[in-house]
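Please decode residue identities from the backbone states below.
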């Protein structure tokens, strides 16, 4: 392997690591109500669209940071404690853009009991771009709710 090919592979691995850091930081910010960090995970013109594929109902859709900031400001903060867990991400990097497919799980602590509850699960389809400041940000996040223990 040439030095150039090795450099490209290392750069791709670092991009993948940074992309996952953005997505994991998004989840931590959402769960602990860090509004500024959550909004900063998105580009200025980002789209966040969540649909319940079982019922066919759109859960919510935000376009642009202003709508995203309004959404997260109104998102319920703990308690009850929530955890957005992203698993099995498949990251594809193409220059300064990337796509990520992953599963997600939403866990909460049951009110009054302190026991864990699986609330919902589904899949994400994300598109990210590497910004001029070097940070990867979400330009499109599509969430598919595939099962929900509550009415959407």
């Amino acid at each position: 392997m040439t030095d150039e090919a090795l450099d490209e592979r290392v750069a791709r691995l670092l991009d993948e690591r940074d992309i996952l850091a953005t997505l994991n930081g998004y989840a931590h910010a959402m769960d602990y109500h860090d509004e500024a960090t959550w909004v900063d995970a998105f580009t200025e013109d980002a789209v966040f669209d969540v649909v319940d594929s079982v019922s066919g109902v759109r859960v919510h859709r935000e376009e642009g940071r202003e709508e995203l900031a309004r959404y997260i400001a109104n998102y319920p903060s703990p308690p009850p404690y929530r955890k957005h867990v992203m698993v099995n991400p498949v990251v594809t990097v193409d220059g300064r853009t990337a796509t990520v497919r992953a599963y997600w799980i939403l866990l909460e602590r049951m009110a009054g009991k302190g026991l864990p509850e699986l609330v919902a699960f589904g899949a994400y389809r994300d598109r990210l771009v590497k910004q001029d400041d070097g940070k990867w940000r979400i330009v499109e996040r599509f969430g598919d709710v595939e099962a929900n223990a509550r009415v959407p």
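Observation: Helices lie at 3-31, 35-40, 64-73.
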